[in-house]
Write a structure and sequence with these properties.
The structure is a homotetramer. The first copy, chain A, is elongated, with a radius of gyration of 23 Å. The first copy, chain A, is α/β, with parallel strands linked by helices.
Chain lengths: 338, 338, 338, 338
Amino acid sequence: MIIILKSDATEEQIKHIQEKAEKLGLQANISRGVEKTVIGLIGPEDVLRGTPLEIFPGVEKVIPVLAPYRLVSREFKKENTVIKLSHNVTIGEKKLHVMSGPCSIETHEGLRNIAREIKKSGGTILRGGAFKPRTSPYDFQGLGEEGLKYLKDVGEEFGMPTVTEVMDPRDVELVCRYVDVLQIGARNMQNFSLLNEVGKTKTPVMLKRGISATYKEWLMCAEYILSNGNFDVMLCERGIRTFETGTRNTLDINAVPVVKQLSHLPIVVDPSHGTGRWGLVSSGARAGVAAGCDALMVEVHDNPEEAFSDGAQSLLPKNFESLMIELKAIAKAISREI
Amino acid sequence: MIIILKSDATEEQIKHIQEKAEKLGLQANISRGVEKTVIGLIGPEDVLRGTPLEIFPGVEKVIPVLAPYRLVSREFKKENTVIKLSHNVTIGEKKLHVMSGPCSIETHEGLRNIAREIKKSGGTILRGGAFKPRTSPYDFQGLGEEGLKYLKDVGEEFGMPTVTEVMDPRDVELVCRYVDVLQIGARNMQNFSLLNEVGKTKTPVMLKRGISATYKEWLMCAEYILSNGNFDVMLCERGIRTFETGTRNTLDINAVPVVKQLSHLPIVVDPSHGTGRWGLVSSGARAGVAAGCDALMVEVHDNPEEAFSDGAQSLLPKNFESLMIELKAIAKAISREI
Amino acid sequence: MIIILKSDATEEQIKHIQEKAEKLGLQANISRGVEKTVIGLIGPEDVLRGTPLEIFPGVEKVIPVLAPYRLVSREFKKENTVIKLSHNVTIGEKKLHVMSGPCSIETHEGLRNIAREIKKSGGTILRGGAFKPRTSPYDFQGLGEEGLKYLKDVGEEFGMPTVTEVMDPRDVELVCRYVDVLQIGARNMQNFSLLNEVGKTKTPVMLKRGISATYKEWLMCAEYILSNGNFDVMLCERGIRTFETGTRNTLDINAVPVVKQLSHLPIVVDPSHGTGRWGLVSSGARAGVAAGCDALMVEVHDNPEEAFSDGAQSLLPKNFESLMIELKAIAKAISREI
Amino acid sequence: MIIILKSDATEEQIKHIQEKAEKLGLQANISRGVEKTVIGLIGPEDVLRGTPLEIFPGVEKVIPVLAPYRLVSREFKKENTVIKLSHNVTIGEKKLHVMSGPCSIETHEGLRNIAREIKKSGGTILRGGAFKPRTSPYDFQGLGEEGLKYLKDVGEEFGMPTVTEVMDPRDVELVCRYVDVLQIGARNMQNFSLLNEVGKTKTPVMLKRGISATYKEWLMCAEYILSNGNFDVMLCERGIRTFETGTRNTLDINAVPVVKQLSHLPIVVDPSHGTGRWGLVSSGARAGVAAGCDALMVEVHDNPEEAFSDGAQSLLPKNFESLMIELKAIAKAISREI
């Protein structure tokens, strides 16, 4: 921890900080510059957790030396985390995977039709929502367990692992019985009760970035999951909220290399939410692969005009097919494959 | 619903939209301008919920005519909602109330000491956290039920209704047994399971604005609560996330008059989180009252250096006392009282 | 300057940084913690300007100890700057001033009518735009010198100093001949050619905050003006751009106490642009005074429906009159006056 | 223009709007729904420019039907604009171009060395700053005309067209004498005097997006240039300001397909400013090409530690070389070439 003092900090104030630090087992290293005095606290920063040094008299600014997360950091684990799913799918290696499917699971037959198309074009993981977090209480809220059954069934039929969102800590056990990957949605990124609950399972988790979460906050939420014992976490960039209203969200493509530098966890890009308009999805998907992501999540629907949710950002199967051809070529251009 | 068509929309595309509308029981009113054609759909917009008209061929933009919320709107209920708490405290009338107390409940004795000071200066509602949503899994997470007991006890001793945060739908019943007002924190504003759960109780709710929630999204979350039967909801502006890093959050003072225009629900201002630094809290509190809020929430601690959380933004009792004197004068200046 | 090294920084990398520092006349103070090594550079930070230490091998983060601005800082000058204008108006003392008038100067007679009303209600400075920065090239661009003449004339008739925007460095001399205060608009906050030009005059300057400028960047722009010799600068908070679209801008009320802490320059609040809707202006103006500003800028028009610009956010004279009564009471409540 | 009325709008208010519209030559089409009345104004929207319909009594919201820009829009001109520069370089066709060079021009010899490396790797346009907009008045401000001479000279030696920033309307003529493309920097995007001045020349312009400019505002600024007669404008996405501080800016990759849809002008991506850290630049450059941009701008320096500016985000020539190999493969994957 580094403490920059105000120009007019007194000796008494310096002593007060020093005493506090020493009481906590830290060594205070005082460095007096021409204009400012700086105190470096040497020792485990963790003991300072909760001590608001910035309000101690004479203090201007406090700067932590260590990142607030541990288990998720690249420093803690140098090699990339690889997550093994059913049907020989692994996330985090040379081969990229594309998760695809409808926003909401609607009917068993409808899901089958979409899954068939996706599989044919090269999609390897099936997505579909059974519990839907909706802005309005009057919107369709998902089929619940019925939807989970369809998802499991169709995933097995086509040999695809499955992913679905869980919103309520009371549903975690239920959802684990049906799917391969638990999705934590953007709105629930900091729902700590839910994070603790999925952290106690052995099911892989995909943690979506909150709509206005910093990289640091996002990694701290992953830390919640890992610190409960579940290390199979992938992070999903799905667009952030900015001043721009010309798109639903702003896909933060920088997140891909930043996460790769800070963490060993795999990174997924979701250009459907990252743009919010189907006409922009392919461009965002290509950018995600070129930037170096480990997987994509793309919403596909065979009749978007009648979709129960997110029809506006769903690709038609034929557009998904063309996209997959481009993605394969781009992956190859950067020595990866799809 | 108003639909603006692309310049090159065809007659067939117009017919397709018209048919869809009529199938849903709406009347399509077509208006052909020099450059663009506009279709107005007359009838209940609700039937269009989920139909992504924006992807229908030929459509450029879709504009809803009605607000997406109903029960919370000023149009639904003209007169201000007044919420009655214990000890003759009512929120939403001429008299403003100041909710105050420590961020976290730490000890029974500590809470009593702070409550005594607050009461003396004119604070009328006691706040304190027992379940704490913390960015880091390694931070103090609150005393849980033990803390709730202290809060109830001290509130009764000093004749003050109490408010505390609930984070998990499984805790709602427990928390209701101890406090007068359930706080939904900013991070859980869109935790719809939790909103549904508090909506089923008869305990008043204070819904904090999410860190990057628009007014509309915030009101939609209140709508979740009201639509479950609980109409005693107050909204709390507690600062939003912007590009500015010189303060922890940006207190959006415009929210006060905007909420008053759009909704009948009372509005609370929290300058502690809205600024994040105790040296700015008084200024924000004064601005909140001057702008027309119905209540304030201000964190106070008698030893911020040792506070378990949010020490940096807590006022000392003596500063709270001076602030209350200013606030009373400002309230009077705009024909209200504290 | 403080340099935090990566965990795996080598001795050679440390030596490379040390040598660079010493070559520039700085002393490198190396502190080796358990996990990280930190280097403190002691001496004038200015010599490092332009040296990108963050890319030196082994460096994780670089933290400046000193603020990047000097002349504008509270540390440079403890007492508040007071700016003297004509007609015995001074900005930065106990008495607050309200600058008011139409967005655009339209006609001589129209300006007179508005000025008369403002003066009657207690406004003391007359504003009006002659050069208008407009989002569209097809919008009304202002009357130019003709407008400046009206402004000067009407200001003298009613005994009010005047303020108007200057947009082009080539117009600075011209505008100085007519008005008391040069306004730099939000869009031109970082128009450094223009800042240098107004910095060379002796005319007071009101520097509006850029729509997405941090406090630090804003103060750096004031530093441009002061470093050219013109110390009569006031800062104007006029709302920032955020994700919220329910208002035109978000009035950042925190800016008032923050600027007061960091700088000796007076601070003005503009609730007209800070809200963008006349129905919210009074609330923002009251908040500004309560928060501690030194002056307000409020747009007033006697026929907003026909105003050439910003009619939507202009107050009618009768609303301005009621507002002034409230403002006087609030100023008194915090020991100031209007 | 579409006007949505308040639920309680009176007949008199409707008539008032109708009369205003008819006076301006528009036809008012009134449509009465169950809850709301909507007025469609048919005729040229331009006559309403400046009339603040939103404050007319009874009005709730006003929605323009037409985009505010004309000349830059895809509707005005269907085919892509192609800009021809010297040395057979054309922007806006199948072949992508990479503009590269140092942030600041420092010495003649230094610029030659960098240009030689860039040319060898496949860069086709030479960039370098002679007039530098710097956050601090104490930073290096550029070599001015001396720098322009070096740029012209080196560009000719290596057969590369050149691009440099112009900041002051008084310098436009001078800069035109030396370079092929005038760059308008992000800070000056809304410097309308400067836009008018470059619009009067015949030199192509690269207009960078302001740090918090919406797509619409950006296009309006291009409209300023085109409306002055200069149609050779390219737009440059260079990162926007968001809440995220882990990168200098957030590269808005969505801007590429959005601009392509809305406008016929070519789009350039600048991953150097879009990320702010050299370790992220390659990822952003690859994403830009994959997303469909027409050109890239990448800062390169052979000794970033000693660069006069932006050393932190400059690539070394050897990294630029590797990047170009990847970019060629990605371009090919989407049927373009570099």
